[in-house]
Amino acid sequence: MGVFDAFGYKGKRALVVGGATGMGAATAQLAQDAGAEVVVMDIAAPTLAGAEYIQVNLADKESIDEALGQLGGRVDTLFSCAGVADGTPGIEKINFIGHRHMIDHMLEDGMLPPGSAIGFISSAAGLGWESNLDRLKDYLATPDFDAAVKWVEQNGGADYMSTKQAICAYVASEAYPMLKRGVRINAICPGPTDTPLAQANKELWLGFASDYRAELGLQPSTPLEQAYPLVYLCSDAAVSITGHILVTDVGYFAAGLTEAYPPATDIARFLTGRLT
Ligand SMILES: NC(=O)c1ccc[n+]([C@@H]2O[C@H](COP(=O)([O-])OP(=O)(O)OC[C@H]3O[C@@H](n4cnc5c(N)ncnc54)[C@H](O)[C@@H]3O)[C@@H](O)[C@H]2O)c1
To answer: Per the domain annotation, does 148 fall within a domain?
Structure first.
C-alpha cells in the first residue's frame, strides 16, 4: 500500500447514474478499472461487463425509490451523470430534480456514509449560476421532488441551461452541510464531448468552440477524458476538494474571459453571466 492508492477505488462500491452510454459509461469503466465494484442505474442497459444494472427513470420519483430499494447497502461513490438535451419532456426532473431526490433518499437511509463522495456532471452551459444565485436559492429551498417540480411549473426552468445552473448552485451550497456528514460533493462542467447525446445535437453541441479547437488542433473531448477528472474528484486523493465546479472545457472559457482568445470572449461572458 503506497500513498498513490488514494487515487484508486479498491474496496469501494460505486453507483453510476446514467452509466449506460457516453461519459457515464466511461466513468463506470474507469471506476471499475480503478478497483471499484460498479452498479449502473440508467433507463437503458449498460454494456460494461461485470457491472450490476438497475433500471431507473429519473423523471419518475417512484422509479428512483424502487431502484434504490433494489440497490440496498451503502455506496462509497455516487456519480450523477445522466442528462438529456432541450426538447426532452421532463428535462428538469432527469437533469436535476431526480438526481437530488436520489441523493436525499440515500442520505436519509445512510447509504452515503462518512467518507463517501458525490460527483455530478453539469455543463459549461451551467456556468452562469452565480449571477442567478438568488433565484436558484429559492428553487433549491424546495423540500422535495414534487415541490421542485411545482416550482419549475410556476417559475420556469425546464430547459438545459437552467437545469445545469441548478446543479452548480446545488453542489456549491451543499458542500458545507454535506461535509458535516463527512460527504463531499463536486461537479465537472464539460465542454463539447463526443457522446451519443452530443451526436444527436451535433450542430449546437459539437459546433460549440469548434473554431478554438481548430486553432489548437483538438477534437471534442472523448468521454474518457471527462471521466478522468470526475473519477479523480470522487477519489480519496481529492479529500480537500468539495463544493467545487471544475470546468473541463480544454481552456475555452479561461481563454475567452481573459481575452487570450478573443473570439470566445462574448460567449464566455454571456454563459458565465458577466455580460451586462
Ligand atoms: N456531450 C457533451 O458535449 C456534454 C457537454 C456538457 C455536459 N454534458 C452532460 O454530460 C452528461 C452525460 O451525457 P453524455 O453526453 O455522456 O450523453 P449520453 O446520452 O451518452 O449519456 C446520458 C445517459 O443518461 C441516460 N438517461 C437519459 N434519460 C434518462 C432517464 N430518464 N433516467 C435515467 N437515465 C437516463 C442515458 O440512457 C445515457 O446513458 C449529461 O448530464 C449531459 O448533460 C454533455
So the answer is: yes
